[in-house]
Each structure stands twice: as C-alpha cells, then as structure tokens.
LARGE xylosyl- and glucuronyltransferase 2 isoform X7 (Balaenoptera musculus), 1390 residues
Amino acid sequence: MLPRGRPRALGAAALLLLLLLIGFLLFRGDLDYERPRPRGTAAFDGDPPADPGGRNGSDCTPPRPRPPKCELLQVAIVCAGHNSSRDVITLVKSMLFYRKNPLHLHLVTDAVARNILETLFHTWMVPAVRISFYNADELKPQVSWIPNKHYSGLYGLMKLVLPSALPPDLARVIVLDTDVTFASNIAELWALFAHFSDKQVIGLVENQSDWYLGNLWRNHRPWPALGRGFNTGVILLRLDRLRRAGWEQMWKLTATRELLTLPATSLADQDIFNAIIKEHPWLVRPLPCVWNVQLSDHTLAERCYSEASDLKVIHWNSPKKLRVKNKHVESFRNLYLTFLEYDGNLLRRELFGCPRPPPPGAEQLQRALAQLDEEDACFEFRRQQLTVHRVHITFLPHKPPPPQPHDVTLVAQLSMDRLQMLEALCRHWPGPMSLALYLTDAEAQQFLRFVETSVVLSARQDVAYHVVYREGPLYPINQLRNVALAQALTPYVFLSDIDFLPAYSLYDYLRASIKQLELGSGRKAALVVPAFETLHYRFSFPSSKAELLALLDAGSLHTFRYHEWPRGHAPTDYARWREAQAPYHVQWAADYEPYVVVPRDCPRYDPRFVGFGWNKVAHVVELDAQEYELLVLPEAFIIHLPHAPSLDISRFRSSPTYRDCLQALKDEFHQDLSRHYGAAALKYLTALQQPRGPT
Amino acid sequence: MLPRGRPRALGAAALLLLLLLIGFLLFRGDLDYERPRPRGTAAFDGDPPADPGGRNGSDCTPPRPRPPKCELLQVAIVCAGHNSSRDVITLVKSMLFYRKNPLHLHLVTDAVARNILETLFHTWMVPAVRISFYNADELKPQVSWIPNKHYSGLYGLMKLVLPSALPPDLARVIVLDTDVTFASNIAELWALFAHFSDKQVIGLVENQSDWYLGNLWRNHRPWPALGRGFNTGVILLRLDRLRRAGWEQMWKLTATRELLTLPATSLADQDIFNAIIKEHPWLVRPLPCVWNVQLSDHTLAERCYSEASDLKVIHWNSPKKLRVKNKHVESFRNLYLTFLEYDGNLLRRELFGCPRPPPPGAEQLQRALAQLDEEDACFEFRRQQLTVHRVHITFLPHKPPPPQPHDVTLVAQLSMDRLQMLEALCRHWPGPMSLALYLTDAEAQQFLRFVETSVVLSARQDVAYHVVYREGPLYPINQLRNVALAQALTPYVFLSDIDFLPAYSLYDYLRASIKQLELGSGRKAALVVPAFETLHYRFSFPSSKAELLALLDAGSLHTFRYHEWPRGHAPTDYARWREAQAPYHVQWAADYEPYVVVPRDCPRYDPRFVGFGWNKVAHVVELDAQEYELLVLPEAFIIHLPHAPSLDISRFRSSPTYRDCLQALKDEFHQDLSRHYGAAALKYLTALQQPRGPT
C-alpha cells in the first residue's frame, strides 16, 4: 500500500519544523548547560552500540562510560497497596541480584505499602541499600485533577511530580514501574546518563506497540506522541535540569491543554510524558530498547531482544501480566519467577570494596553472632534465636476490622504443611485473624496461589497473613507468634495454635465474655479456652458443649494430650469444666500451657524457645508472674486435629542433645525470671525441682 | 623427616634435564604458529584491564574481544561418584544462568556419574546445551601410575589427558573443577582465548595461596612452580596446539622426572601443570584473577575481588568447602546457595536469536502441549501428565545390593512432609529400598542435610533416593512410582506407600515366600500384603500376627480405610486372612488396591493419574488384565500411620471439577484398556457400571 496524503504530510512537516525551531529557541535558555559531559556523547543520536567491543571494524571506539565503582545509584518507585508491595519486592530482588553499587531507593507509597515495606526492609538488612519513604497521599492533590482510565489509577500519574517530591539536592534518578524485572546490572543503565546531551532531561525507551500511532480501532484516539511514543516503565530523569526548566508548569500546561480535547489519560503518566516530548522533542534521550522490553500483547519487542540476544530489563506492561500472549513468554516468565522465588536472605551479601555504613541493627547482630561458640552443642539453638527473619506483613490484601471495644483476633502461626487447616479455620472462626506463616520465598508464592484458588479464603478480607521467611534449621515458633501478635489490631487476642478448630460459637462467645467480665476496664485476666483432641481425621465437629461431652464419654474425643502429657492442661480442671455454668478461677502450676484470650498488650513470647518444647509454657509463666488471673470459660472449647509428628518433635524425641539444649534454655529462662521478678519468681524454680515426666 | 635418597635423585634430575632439553628442541617447532591473532594481544603480559571502559585516561583502549553471538562454547568437566554429580549440577546451573551462548559440555565420568547425569540432562531438556560423555575408567591407566595424595584421587589427575580424550577436532576447551561457581557469563571467559599469543596454550589464574613458595612448615616441599604457581580449577586449553606440541609426552616426562625426587603429587594435576609451566613458561597465558577466586583457608583472594569489586568465578578449593574460613565466606556462600537451591526448571529457557536444534523429545512435547485446550476444565490435569520432570537418580551415595535371586526392594514415593517417616521405615525394612522424592531444588538440600544428620539414615547405603523435581500444581504420583520402580535393582519389588510401616519380619518373610512359591520360575503372581491402620500417632507396633490380631480385636487397629473406603481392600478378605496358614488366591474386584510384591518387570503405573485418586487402582486393573495371580500372604502385614489429609485429597473433597476430571481420566483409562485387551477388558467396564461409593 502506498502512503496516502504525502503532500499534506510534507506541508505539516514544514510547519512542525518551524514550531520546533521556535520551541527550541524558547526553551534552550532554561536548560542546564553546566558540567558538559567530557566525551562528546551528544554525537550518539540513537542507541549506543550494543557491543562495547565495537566489532564495527575499528579498533578504537569511544568506550561506553560506566559509573565509578561504589557510586551511589538513585532509584525511585511509586508503590501503593498490598499487591504492588509484593511486586516491588520482586523488582528489588532482581535489582539487588545483579547490582554492584550501593543503592538509594526512594519509595513513594501509600500507608499500606509503607507499613509493609518499612517492616520488610528493616528486617531484611541488606548492606549498602538506603531507603527513603515519601507520602503518596500528600502528593495526590497534585495529580487528582487529571481524569485517568489506566488500571494503575491515581498512583500511575505520580511519576510526574517526582522532581518536586524528591529531595531538592537529588540530581538524577532512575524511575521504575513496579512491574519491571532486571536481567542485568542497574549500573549499566545509570551509565547512560553520561550519554545525555546538554538539553536532554528524560531518558526513555521507545514504545514497542502501535498504540500511539492511533487507529487501532474505530475512534481510537491516543494522546499525541513522537512516532510510536515512549514507554515510561523505565525512566532516567535529570531532576536538576527538570526543576530548572520549570517542569511542574510544563507538564501541567500540556496536560490541561490536551484534556480540552481528550476526555482522560489512557496510559496515565505515559500519555502526559509523550505529549510533552511531542512538544519538546529535544528533552528526550532515547535509550536502547533492551532497557525496557515490553511484553504487552502484540508487542514488537521481539525485534529488540532477538537482535541483541540480550535483555536488560523486562517490563510486564500488560494488565494480563504473566498471562500475556508472547511466543517467548515462557522464557521471560522464568526470569521473573527466578526472582519471585529467589531466597531474599541470599541478597544480604556485602558489596566488596565499597565500604558503607551497615544497616540499622546489623552491627549489633554481628557482634552477638561473633560471640557465639561454634563448638557449643547448642550452637544451632543460639544461632536460631539471634536470626533476624525477613518479615512481610499483610502479604495479601487485608481490611482491618472496624474498631470495636470487645473484639478479639485469633492469633496463630503455621508453615506450609498446615495450609490445609486454613479453610476449616475460616469456617469455624468468622472473626479477624492474624496468622504468621513460616515460608521460603517460593513457598510464599504457592501460598498465594492456594488462597487465590480457594473460594473460602479469598472471600475473607479480615484474615491478615504475615510471611516470616525461613532461615535456619529450627522452627522459630515464638518469633512467629510475636509477629502475629504484634499485627493483631483488636483490643483482645485469642492465642491459639493452627491445629485447633474452635467451637463454631467461640468468636461470639468470647466477645460476650470479654464484655461481661469487664476485661476492658483494666482487669488483667487470661480467659482459658479448654482444649480437646480427636484422633480421627474424619470427624463430625460437636455443635455444643453437650455434644462435646457426649463424644468425650463415647471415647471419640479426649482432653488435649491426655495420653502423652496430661500436665500441660490438668490445671484447667476438666471435671469442673464439665459442670461449670460460670467462669471459674484456676491456679498456675508447673508446665501449664492453656490456650488463652488476653488483652493485646500482653507479654510477648520468649523468642529463645525455638523448635519444640516449652515455648507456650514460658509464656504462661510470664502471664502468671505478671499476675494475670486465669479464668476458665465454661462454654468455650477448641479441638485439636491429628497430624503426623513435626520434624522438630521427632528430633526432640530422638536426640539427647536437643533435650539437653532445651533444658539449658529453660534454666536460662528461670535465671532471667528471677532477675526480673525477684523472690516472686521463686515458685517457678521450686516447681521445676518437683519430680516430673518428659519435657 | 628428611627425604631419603637425595644424591641419587639429583643425578636422575640431571639426566632428565638433558632429556627435556632435547625434547624441547624437538617439540618447539610443532607449536601452532598459524592464525596469528590480529590485535597484538601478546602485549598483555598480565591481566588485561578489568574495565573495558578504560578509565586509564585514554579514550582509546583496544576493546576486549567477545565471542561472536551464538558461538558454541566448549566446556570439559571430570566428574565421578554421587557427590561430585551433585556438585557438577550446581556448577552447571550457575553457568546456564548467566550464559547467552550455546554450550557443549564434555563430561568425563565414571559409571555412577554417567548414569546420574545422563538421566538428569535427558529429563532437564535445556535448549542449546549438548552433552557428550567420556568413560573415565578407560582413561585411568594413563594416570594411575602417578602417586597422588590429593582428596580428589585419581580423577583429580584426569585433566592431563583431555587433549587425547576429547575429539581430535576440538580445538579449544574451558576445563572446570566441579567445585567452581560462576557469577558471570562464561562467554567472557571464552573471549580470553583471543588474548593468547601464538605460543600460549594454557590459560590459568595465579594461585592465591603461598603453597608453591614452599616452607609453609618444616620439610614442606611443593612441586616446582613459577612464583606462586597457577591454580587449575579453571583452565583455558588450546587443545589443537597441545596435541601438536606432543603434550602427552611432555607431561609424562615432567611427571616422571619430578617423581624421582618427590614421593607423590599433593595437588593432583595442578602439581604437574605447574612443573611443566616452570619448565616452559611461554606456554601459559595468565588470566585475570577474578576468573578463579580461590577460597581456601589463608587465601590471598581478597586482594583480587575487593580491587575488582567483581567476581567472575568462585572456586571452593578447600577440602572444607563451604565451611572454609574466609571473612567474606558468608557472601560467597550466598552466591553458591543461590544456584544450589535454584529451580533448575527455570533454566529451560530458550536462547533468543540463536536457533539450535531442540533437545531430544522437546519438539514432540511442544506439539503435545500446543494441542492442549487452556479452557478445558481439566487443563491442569492434562498439563501435569505431560510434564517432563527433571530426575536426579541416586541423589545420595548408594551401593546396589549384591545380586540375589529372591531379593525384593521396597518401592515408594514421598514429598517433604513425609521425611519423618524415613527413619522408622529403615528400622522396619532392613532390605533395599528405592524411593522417589518429589522436591524443589531447595528442598533437595534440606533433605540432604536431614539424611546427613540422621544416624539411622546415614548408616544405610542400600536405600536409593531419587529426586524428581517439582513442577506443576498436581502431585505426579504415578510418575514418581515409575521412577522408583525403574531404579529398583532386585528381581522383585514391594510396591508400598510411604505412610506404611512393614512388619519387622516382612523383608525376610517376603524373600522366603518368593522362594517357596517359586515366583522365579516364570510364575506371574502378585503377592498381596494385607494393610491395616492405626489412628494413634503414638503406638506400639505389633511384633507378630497374633499381636496384630489382638490389637485389631481391641479396636486399636483397623483394616486399612475400614471407615472411609472399605472397597479398596475388601477382596483381600481379612476374615480369611485371620485364619490363613498358607497363601490363598483372591479375585480382582472393582476398586481393589492392595499393596503387592511383583517381579521387577511388572507393568508400569499409568502416569495419567496425577493428584489424588485411582492411581493404584488402575495399576491393579493392569496386573489383572495381564493375568497376574493375586495371592494373599498369611503372615505379611503393613500398618498405616495417621497424618493430616494431603492438599490433593482436600482438593478432591472440596472441588467438583477435580472429581469430574478424575472421572474423565478413568473413562479414558478404560477406553485405552478396551483398545489394548479387547473383550477381556469388558469386565472392568461392567464393574464400573455397578453402584458404588465415592471415587
């Protein structure tokens, strides 16, 4: 087909040239002329040669500049909500994997993302990474006037305000969408700043779709753009020059003008960036296409990556994300999955030869670790206690429960082998839950799919899942409990275990009991929920205390651990409970480990207990030492379901060293108790001396 | 102790020197002078500049050559035994992760490593990787005359014979120890061949220890070397030139001469390479230190990597491996663990822009996958059936049982959540076992540690563990069973499940029964081992049939699945078994799924059954269709231990689609059965029509 309307096009081109000339004369004065780049990089008009070896026949090509060793690279990312927070972590993992420079991440976040990412980076402790947060909500008014149809919503527009939102002394920044994955060292991208001519302020990769060419369908009217336009998933910004050029006024003027004829942005900030570039084409520095390989449907990206046989950054810029149709998508997905499932702990490695201040807490931790004796038989226990686990709170979307004075959150922890308990638990407990999950990065993704494919689980927004990443050989049970406890948002918590199913009425009954017993008025009490167990994996759950008692009499149910460890629950006094009509007091006794409801500000669990044994016992000792009343609830019950013994309990049973180490931990716990509570703690030591069974 | 016989040795040395001189004069003419490199790279005497950007003030440095896009790179590795086979896979993963070129791996292996690696690469199906095997045992005579004290043993010397062992048309090869890890693209290493001067034939990195300087302790007499000497963990070999230079005679002469005064090699091939280089220093091309960062104790490697702030290849060249003392070892270990735990499936990605013939079977698989309908409700099932899982047979050291005519191997499969069954199983079954484990790469490492720390498991060399790597959402139960079955080496197999413990006497009893029933003489029979279950997780295992019957009467034991699915085992006829003194025949009936002992050449399991349901039933139908007698053994029994329901059984129970898909699979199974067995298969279809319970 011959191109149509050529004469008209030529006339238009002449007009444009004139306009461009005027535009150029108008703007050039405002741009930054200081610090000219030494090597005449303005000579590169398109992509610099992909091969630094310069196989163009000449033995002497201007070398590609690299950022000096140890130069701090600046990266900005806008991130809001639970799902984007997960995405940004995968992006950061890919960036950290290949990087050899210190990084400063500037995260523009809403409250949810900030809460998640602050905890995550604090516990991640990656050397040579600095994090700054910026409040996206404060920036909203600057962009909320722009109608926007893109799925990223208001946050999609926020890259426009970075020059004013980021610190005024920040001169250059790489801006990334949360849906990009690095396949190379970000320093190579940073080095492209050196190719900017004196006028260029925005480095961008050309769009790899025909969107901005228009006419994709009837009445498809994209925003104006130079040719195919540019994609804003990866941006190099000369903030200093933008500020001096009056960027804020520039983009607002352009957006306002275009919105006179266009109803809204379709691709958020990208439409506005392109409209500006169309007006001021000298502002843009085109970047090699490999720095933003766009995987939307019908993409032209293949031309880019198969010529280069190289990929630097992949951009999942389709609402379909990983389900996008691209004939090589399997390969790209593998690269993405690499980092999705990558053990983030492994990124805690130092940058050699780039001394940087260690992350907060890291020095103290190093000192403590250095004091451990590798020959100590209990070394594994002591190492595990000191381990700082990466924590990703509210891994999945979560709506905090509305504040209610007597509300109670079920608190528990689990690992992968107990996922199948979650649906039943949701059916038995209609209230809020805070669950800590001990997972690898790969398991966290399996967990995500498990929840997404479960009708029961995906319907619940009041269950908060907190992922604690696995590290070390022993299950850090009390650290997990503390994470779940710290994230409970109601005034009361029910400290349960994952293998128990509560009576269907328990949630309502607990709230009524809290109210009736006036716990809210400063009364310090722990409400005991009696525990039972079944040995059958198929079993019909009793709908009332009467039914439970009948099953107990029939031998289908037992009081919890009646056969193996009756001391753990004996003080609950099951005989009395059977007849009780009202809550009754019980006294602490050695090895008592009931399941209790307490105010949220109760003592934390002692993190020294890792693996199997004494982890809950120590917490109940602490409650008693702090003079919590122990009140058994007459209508409350939970039932333990059978499962194979955990690896930890198997090790406890088979290894004398394991038992000796647990004993050492118990001794140290009692020493600390005496130190803290003085003579009042004597009774716990005395109780220890009495003859006793296992544990 | 002083070395004895020094005067004689000195005389011999003088003689050898003379011989060598003659040898040198004879051979130098043979060195390869053709094809001079164009860019005068001989000017580089030490490391080429680490920075191709050439920040040495000049804008024009000779660019570092890169191998042409898509050039096939050649790599040789010597590998023997079970443990080295695991190591080599980690090395290969790191190489594949960064590579952008097709690779040809030349693996010099013993029979064990070949068996493992052939299966692994065959099932891995990595595009653009070709594998050739060379029989290390055939090469042994060429090096076995050299006394060697190094922990790598005879295989440590085998790199010396590569020029003659590898194909005569192979001109260049990178030789790697199994204990190296790549942190960069191997093509960059290959590119260093271009720096070789016309005389250079061996590229090596200088040693990063003082070993060859001598005097590390009294009477420390290392082999001769140039200065610190060179490390042979990473070698660039110009095979063409070496062959022409009479390499074989050269190294044998040098080794013979040195062994006149030195009792043995201490560092295997490395001592001999260094002695040769000391004599003919022009043969060596020194490589940049980053290509072989040596992490032995007291290493000087830090000077290398902190200046370069770059690592290309890490070499764990200490017998202590990961436990080596190096202040940065944690960081290096993280890089190693990255690849140790890396999901090898993700390396199945294509090389863009480098068309290569697909690996064997890959095209057929692609066609089958392309025919699947993504909208089909059973798509997940069909996708899972087609999945080719990577298989690592005999993951841990294993000694095949000595051939015995009536021996029987216990065959089972498991995933991570059943590891705790292994010790008990070993106590109950003293005979050979073949177990398939469905694991991720990371879990395989946890499994390894689990076995290593278990006294019971690490004492057993007759248990073969075969790792089948996880991929896809459904448990490929029958594919796992087939892997374990295919690797059983005795004439009979006991097809069990991991949750069962056999009677202590079962192994002996089965062998006696096989002998007594004359199964060896071509009798086609399946011996049924009756199955029971306990619902208690602590339980005292009956030591005889009498005890078992007492427990059954007391209600502590039940026949297997008596409550949920009695049809599965009803044909075993437990009432008759109770009284039986001799084996008795039973007839097949619908849904019968007994645990049986059969000859090793029995039908395979039908791999279409994935996830929960009908996987064993279909196998017993197949046995019946092939007219196996079903004989119940009167003294045999196994007992199932309780566990939480698997995720698959939970999905089966909660998802109607899951049940529908299983029904579809069953229908297709019966269609295939009719096709294969004709009218004889009619009874299975008829049985299907009868009224029945679930499944």
Notes: The mean pLDDT of chain B is 87. Chain B touches chain A through 72 residues (CB under 8 Å). The CA atoms of residues 532 and 559 of chain B lie 4 Å apart. The longest helix of chain B spans residues 6-27.
